[in-house]
Amino acid sequence: MRDLLEKLNLPYKDESLYEMAITHSSYAYENQTGKNEKLEFLGDAVIELLMSDYLYKEDLADEGEMTKKRAKAVCEDALVMYANKISLADYIKLGRGESLKGPNKAMIADAFEALFAAIYLDLGLEEARRVFYSIAVPHFPNVWKAKDYKSSLQELIQSGDKRVISYHTIKEMGPSHNREFEAAVMLDNYITLGVGRGKTKKEAEQNAAHEALKKGNYDSKENV
Q1: Interatomic CA distance for residues 183 and 219, integer angstroms
Q2: What sign does the CA torsion over 36, 86, 100, 14 have?
Q3: Residue 178 reports pLDDT greater than 90
Q4: Same domain, yes or no: 112 and 197
Q5: In the predicted model, is pLDDT for residue 114 greater than 90?
Q6: Please, what's the b/e burial string for 118-148 (b: 16 or more CB within 10 A of its CB; e: otherwise)?
Q7: Total domain count, the chain
Q8: pLDDT > 50? residue 221
Q9: SS3 162
Q10: 184 and 119 share a domain?
Q11: Annotated catalytic residue 222
């Protein structure tokens, strides 16, 4: 853990926060320790704030474009990209069964969010911003080129009639430390355009949007 903190040049005070940030629920269950889920919740908000602040200050686009850029920059794939630059997966504590498979994308993204919560709680927002600018901002050009199926579907739907799409989690499967989600994307709240699965709700929604785009034809209610 200290190797990672030194790599990030963090003048940390409470090392236990960072230890918790890399502790998956499977390890916590087997060893009766704290897990990173609450930190993940807070870290998600911290990263979104830092991302919004960056886009606002850089004045890169109008509100609609900034919203799309932010969504791409904080999605699971983007978080994994940033996490891989600091080899975060090597530090994640997993239970015995999960250790055999290694951390999946959802676990890595969750730990990355939890790490930022730990930095925020231990050292404040400005230190979190410094780390964010160091390990995330340089990769934004590549992130923004990545395919965002939800945004693509939204643009396609709104290019025609003023119809509304929404996402709904319709099923949750597996034990608490290895959940899988199934989501549906709905048109006008009652027409199912696509269904997808993923290790997180966000990934399931992206896969549902991808399925909807592959099916196509949203002009007629009878054909969706």
Answers
A1: 22
A2: negative
A3: no
A4: no
A5: yes
A6: bbbbbbeeebbbebbeebbbeebeebeeeeb
A7: 2
A8: no
A9: coil
A10: no
A11: no
Checking if the pLDDT of 49 tops 90, the result is yes
CATH of the domain at 93: 1.10.1520.10
* Domain-located, residue 11: yes
Contact 152, 165 (CB under 8 A): no
Instruction: Indicate the average pLDDT of the chain.
Output: 86
The domain of 108 spans 2-145
CATH code, domain carrying 156: 3.30.160.20
**Which pLDDT score, from 0 to 100, does residue 154 have?**
80
Shared domain for 137 and 174, answered yes or no, is no
At residue 69, the pLDDT reads 82
Mean pLDDT of 114-125: 96
- If one counts every other C-beta atom within 10 angstroms of the C-beta of residue 88, the result is 23
Residue 58 known to be catalytic: no
pTM: 0.70
Q: What pLDDT is recorded for position 96?
A: 86
For the chain, state the CA radius of gyration: 19
Q: 92: which DSSP letter?
A: -
Question: Please, is 173 exposed, middle or buried when counting C-beta atoms within 10 Å of its C-beta (0-12, 13-18, 19+)?
Answer: exposed
Active-site pick, 40, 76, 113, 203: 113
Residues 156 and 119 in one domain: no
Query: From the candidates 40, 44, 122, 148, which is the catalytic residue?
Result: 44
Does 77 share its domain with 158? no
